[in-house]
Amino acid sequence: MDLSDSTDHAFFKALADPTRLRIVHLLLRGDFCVGDITRILALPQSTVSRQLAILKAGGVVADARNGKHVHYGLQDGAPLDNLRPWLAELSLREPYQSDLITLSMVRRSGR
Which of 6, 74, 96, 104 has its CA 20 to 30 A from that of 88? Predict the structure, then answer.
């Protein structure tokens, strides 16, 4: 990877924010709409939308419209694929561990 490429800078800049990293960690578990992410991470909708826009611009996430909702998921391919083991290890730390607990509670309650 040539870090002189502005695309690479945007990718790593997108991962440099703690909130965006929480979103990426959550998206390892599947695709979610903004409302789901808002509920799970207990963040305002405007914050989640803004952070997802940055992640999308950085090539970290992709979106797909499903009726009224836009679902976000992780972009396939390198360099993200190379970082997946490291991202998965975040599950052992806070706030990522709490986010997964909330995710499981939301899924059990039927969203």
Answer: 6
From residue 68, alpha-carbon distances to 21, 33, 96 in Å are 26, 10, 28
What pLDDT does 6 receive?
60
HEC states along 13-58? HHHCCHHHHHHHHHHCCCCEEHHHHHHHHCCCHHHHHHHHHHHHHC
How many whole angstroms separate alpha carbon 73 and alpha carbon 24?
8
DSSP 94: T
Residues 36-75 pLDDT 10s: 999 999 999 999 999 999 999 999 999 999 888 899 999 9
| 1 is a domain residue | no
Q: What share of the chain is helix, strand, coil (3-state, %, to 5)?
A: 60, 15, 25
Domain containing residue 71: CATH number: 1.10.10.10
Q: Give the Cβ contact number of residue 103 at 10 Å.
A: 19
Domain count, the chain: 1
